[in-house]
Amino acid sequence: MIAYRATLDVPQETAWKLSGWLAAHRRKLGTRKGRRAATCYQQAVMVLRWFRENTRMATLATDAGLGISTGYRYLHEGIRVLAVHAPDLHEVLARGKREGWSHVDLDGTLIETDRCRIKNDSGHDAWYSGKHKKHGGNVQILCDPKGFPVWTSPVEPGSTHDITAARVHVLPALYAAAADGLPTLADKGYTGAGIGVHTPTKGRDLDPDTACRNQLLTCLRAIGERGNAILKTRWAALRHVTMCPRRIGDLTAAALVLSTLERGNY
Questions:
Q1: What mean pLDDT is reported for the chain?
Q2: Of 71, 208, 213, 216, which sees the most CB atoms within 10 A?
Q3: Would you call 241 helix, strand, or coil by DSSP?
Q4: Do 97 and 215 fall within a single domain?
Q5: DSSP track, 21-45
Q6: pLDDT digits (tens, 9 = 90+) for 142-160
Q7: Is residue 171 located within the same domain as residue 237?
Q8: Is residue 94 included in any domain, yes or no?
Q9: Residue 216 scores a pLDDT above 80
Q10: How many Cα neighbours within 13 Å face the side chain of 58?
Q11: How many angstroms separate the Cα of 236 from the Cα of each of 65, 121, 155, 187?
């Protein structure tokens, strides 16, 4: 067996912050010192390696001196601890109003997963997205005017349309924010979402005023497309999820917290 050193391109401060949260979680559970097989810092590094590189659990467990079952238990615990620190939607919108954001961008993304073969009420595969031709979970993502993700929704099966998921998780709060002067920009998939949610007008041969409005909306929200890329490109574990798809919401929230930590907002 060949041993070698490797560098994880995650800031040291992120590892220390996660380690502190894990330590607080262990104290809350009443875990006595020395009763765990790995330290909080070792667990934090293991979780970060999984998110950043999607490293196999067999490798993570071996490097940490753990059994595979214990490694999975530590990983899931780390995901829960991170997800708990995800920002609340109303707090995010209040901060946007306080900081003078011109708007927020709403978009949905599909987090790919293994097929589940769970039928919905119509008899179709609930986790299969006809739009993307893949299995996955639908997650709604809210971005600030600079295109940085600031909130993620719980997961809905991949067959759920964006506007349907938005109505369940985010639109009521966006209506209130729009009334306070913080509008939302979205793509044509959210047409008919309601007052305060601005979408391009559908159709061809549009009149010049409408075409100009569409172009302006597209330019303004184009930077919002980077929010999905920040999460799915930076954190390899989100590119294809092999655990229960119901956990995708927690995984995305945890990735959002890690991205925010790297940005220095915690």
A1: 91
A2: 71
A3: strand
A4: yes
A5: HHHHHHHHHTPPTT-SSS-HHHHHH
A6: 999 999 999 999 999 999 9
A7: yes
A8: yes
A9: yes
A10: 0
A11: 23, 33, 18, 26
* Residue 102 maps to a domain: yes
CA dist., res. 190 & res. 198, Å (int): 9
Question: What is the H or E stretch that residue 137 is in?
Answer: strand 134-143
- What number is the average pLDDT over the span 205-223? 87
Domain with 65, as residue range(s), is 12-84
Q: What are phi and psi of 56, to 5 degrees?
A: -60, 140
On the question of pLDDT at 266 being above 80, the answer is no
What gap in Å lies between CA 9 and CA 251, rounded to an integer?
19
Per-residue pLDDT tens over the stretch 24-37? 999 998 888 878 88
Q: Say if residue 117's pLDDT is above 80.
A: no
What gap in Å lies between CA 231 and CA 253, rounded to an integer?
Answer: 10
- Do 29 and 140 reside in the same domain of the chain? no
**Number of domains making up the chain:** 2
